[in-house]
Amino acid sequence: MTSYRLNQGGLIDRAQPLSFSFDGKPMTGFAGDSLASALLANGQRLMGRSFKYHRPRGVLTAGAAEPNALMTIGKGGRTETNTRATMQELYAGLTARSQNRWPSLDHDIGALNGLLSPFLSAGFYYKTFMWPATFWEKLYEPFIRKAAGLGEAAKESDPDRFEKCWAHCDLLVIGAGATGLAAALTAGRAGARVILLDEQATIGGGLLSETATISGVPAPRFAETLLAELEALPNVRVLPRTTAFGWYDGNVFGAVERVQKHLAEPLANRPVERLWRIIAGQALLATGAEERPLVFGGNDIPGVMMASAARSYVNRYAVAPARQMAVFTTNDSGYALVRDLEAAGVSLSAIIDSRAEGAAPGLYKGSARIIPGAVVRDAHGGKSLSAITIASQGRTEKLGVDGLAVSGGFSPIVHLACHRGGKLSWSDENGAFLAEDRKGLALAGAAAGLSGLATCLEAGARTALALLDQLGIAATFAPFPDVEGDIVAPATKPLWSIPGIKGKAFIDFQNDVHRADLGLAVREGYAHVELAKRYTTNGMATDQGKLSNVNAIGLLAEARGVSPDEVGTTTFRPFYTPVSFGALAGSSHGKHFQPVRQSPLHDWAKKNGARFVETGLWYRSAWFPRAGESTWRESVDREVRTVREKAGLCDVSMLGKIEITGKDAATFLDRVYCNGFANLPVGKARYGLMLREDGFIYDDGTTSRLAEDRFFMTTTTAYAAGVLNHLEFCAQALWPELDVRLASVTDQWAQMAIAGPLARAILQDIVDADISNEAFPFLGARTVSLFNGALAGRLFRISFSGELAYELAVPAGYGESVADALMEIGKPHGMCAYGVEALSVLRIEKGHVTHNEINGTVVPADLGFGRMVSTKKADFIGKHMLSREGLVAANRHQLVGVVPLDPATSFRTGAHILAKGATATLESSLGHVSSSCHSPHVGSTIGLALVRAGASRHGEEVMVWNGLRGEYTPGRLCDPVFVDPAHEKLKV
Amino acid sequence: MASLIACPHCGRRPKEEFTIKGAALVRPEPEADADTWFDHVYLRDNPRGRYAEFWHHTSGCRRWLVVTRDTATHELEETRDAALWRRETAR
Ligand SMILES: [Zn+2]
């Protein structure tokens, strides 16, 4: 394979050769090459297979819009699929693989799809995959997934780091071509804070591919000079390799910087990509324009490319796009390429100019053959272009060429200007859709429909001045030196359809939509631009129709006989180009995404052999297995029995804890709980029910009064954050006149439950004051001195287990030592550590509810708390909706207990309760089992259930039905309190 | 992706720091009739245009705010501390 590299010129560093591979084939390029230019230099034209028809495809562009040359780069966890070869900088050791081909790029079986093309026409998804529905999972979906034609993601995790950051500036300039550089410099010289970003590795945009000179300096060198001045300004930040992908509310721009994607081995201490959120006073869109392809037969054959791309390959990368070229143009820009090809010594067969009058007089002084008033009707060839058919005034001529550059005019790159609702309008004068300036954002240069270097330099500077003026920053205009050798291409009438086409004429290259598809969509009634898009999938690939949308609109307009303005555009949304999930996630992965929340007693639990369970972010001790116990049930049963017979210690630190202070704290609690709190004496705890404004229960917990103006509230673990938000809302937005302050103290206290008949004896050992039943009765709550005055803690005589029990809170840092001391003291008493599993059994045996029962559909009366609800208070959250008809109905679901008739049988949480003899249907379900466990006390499975009119059905025989598993367990409804129904144990 | 809310206490902060509760409504008087309460709890306007909502600066100063914005343009008109708002809208 002979090289297509030109002997001289270009911005590549010939002293730095880089070896890389494509589909395993070793190749060489130079520093400064893109992967695409290096492949072309190596004569590798065939770069991929198309999506639907598996047609051979080569590179079409030299930039971000590339629809064909999509490759998989890298290995292992660094595999990056669908990488545009035009945007990938070459590095030593780069491995690239083609996609969407099997078994190889040269011999691809899927190309047979081309023969099936009548069945793969527009709307084929809708027509083919209609029915039967059962075909979806086994046949259609796998087919679509396989045919989707994109690269295969790596299974390994990405070893690299990503990060996010914010930046602020007066002026953000997006695009560092002539316009953007002029704007940034004007603002930078005036002292404004400027950020200039560009998607390319090298700053300069179109200047890098330009052969014109500015004051005698070649355009790329001129860009270098401007960059040097910008970089010397401390108030200017230049970000190469950075794509602005979206414009958001508050003039915030999203951008992704590819920090190390051009390195084989990224440095571990730096991110590979950085996601920027840039807050701009004003923004300037200097994104340039996209050249439009022309829609002729075989316009996708490798060897056909955009004229501006051909110019980049020749001038910037020193690569000849072909041996024998032709240029097909509708405007003067094609002649700039012709001139550069001639200068580089690339052989040129003809210029096919669609205009009868040809180029502006005197514009082209070369000797190439010009065919005016002509079109390329068809291109020929398989994996490489071999000839073109030219049609002119009724005659056709076949010309043997291996390269064809096309220019159908230019579409300003206006995507970002539309992200916040901006609309485009068609300009006949510009032959393009233009965007309007919006508050906070202006367009300039080619992005505003202008052409020519001198024009763009001036426009950039003048627009910057206007934007700075809006910010109150004074700046002055400095003219730029004279430009020589620039070919300005005024807009011409677009050429939408070419008559007499024989081959497939592609509009959307990436999604394989061709002209006949669009015609079919119009005939079948999908001529509206939004419908045509979805029916044909035009513009729906990852390139988002950068090359195809305007051509599709033009063809639709022509078919309907209206202006493109009347057809309108589809909506541009972020992201402008694909952004990796890694960049969007930033550092939020693994433990950074979901940190572990450890209780202050975590280490105590660990050394006591706890098995942990994740509850939200918390790691809670679930049970504490001992030698000889082979199942979790054995451990849990033992822990439950030990608590009922002797004593146990359980970590309850993860309960939400809120300190409520202020002279109106009691009034406040009276309004947020449905039961009374104003009359709670100092030194007492009370169980409280918090309702939502609609009357349903929100959360429960105990609140203790430590002083007249100080309360200590506990919430459930799950609702700790929600309850604080709610209380803050009540204090700030509902009753700001109350003197009340709220502070979360969940993390400040280690809290442990000491439960069981021997709890007092054990605890008395460390508590200095008398805690006898007389001195410290049930529901006592007070600050206590511990270890002979060494430590102060808070002691609450409350019980979730139904046993004589206390909860002791000590400052978090002392938690482990205090728990250790209690375990030591408890040892001769037979005390054990118990976890949340045993805690759950103990509470179910006692009929205590959790969020299994407080599930958003229950009111206090449903749980037997009807009499707790205050009738004296004029107001509390939820009071006013509680008396609604549906909330007091007799057949509401109410809390009951349920046991199996045969203790040897069992049932599960979630099972339905059916009336005895009822058919097993959801319609006949009376309710469901909300909590269940094995009860060592009862000697069988027990459950709590929410059952229609349950409170009046104690003793009724029912069927417990698990429809998912087909389990039927005869059972009996009963009182939900299985242990000590008179609550005598609490008060001893 | 982004966008900023001007907290009267903390300045312009990313919206990810905030949580939204919904329409900024004055809670009815305790003695209000059932229909008034029903409206307050369940019925909401869904305007195209100006809309005042309760926002909580959850990951910031933890103050509740009343944020007035345009649902069509996303333009922020005003952000105020909810306690101030409540005092000024008090009967
Ligand atoms: Zn704030």
Automatic annotation (TrEMBL), chain A:
Query: Which PANTHER family does the entry mention?
Result: AMINOMETHYLTRANSFERASE, AMINOMETHYLTRANSFERASE, MITOCHONDRIAL
From which domain of life does this come? Answer: Bacteria
The SoxA A3 domain covers which part of the protein?
Answer: 502-586
Q: Which UniProt keywords apply?
A: Oxidoreductase
Output the Gene Ontology terms for molecular function. sarcosine oxidase activity
Organism name? Xaviernesmea oryzae
Q: What NCBIfam families has UniProt attached to this entry?
A: soxA
Q: Which residues form the GCVT N-terminal domain?
A: 601-873
Its signal peptide is: none
What's this protein's name? Answer: Sarcosine oxidase subunit alpha
> Which family is this protein grouped under?
Belongs to the GcvT family.
GO terms under biological process: tetrahydrofolate metabolic process
Q: Name one Pfam family in it.
A: SO_alpha_A3
Q: Which residues form the Aminomethyltransferase C-terminal domain?
A: 894-980
TrEMBL record, chain B:
User: What Gene3D superfamilies is this protein classified in?
Assistant: Folate-binding superfamily
Fetch the InterPro entries from UniProt.
SoxD, SoxD_sf
GO MF terms listed in the record are: sarcosine oxidase activity
**GO BP:** tetrahydrofolate metabolic process
**Pfam families according to UniProt:** SoxD (PF04267)
Its domain of life reads Bacteria
- Tell me the protein's name: Sarcosine oxidase subunit delta
Question: Which organism does this sequence originate in?
Answer: Xaviernesmea oryzae
- What does UniProt list as this organism's lineage? Bacteria, Pseudomonadati, Pseudomonadota, Alphaproteobacteria, Hyphomicrobiales
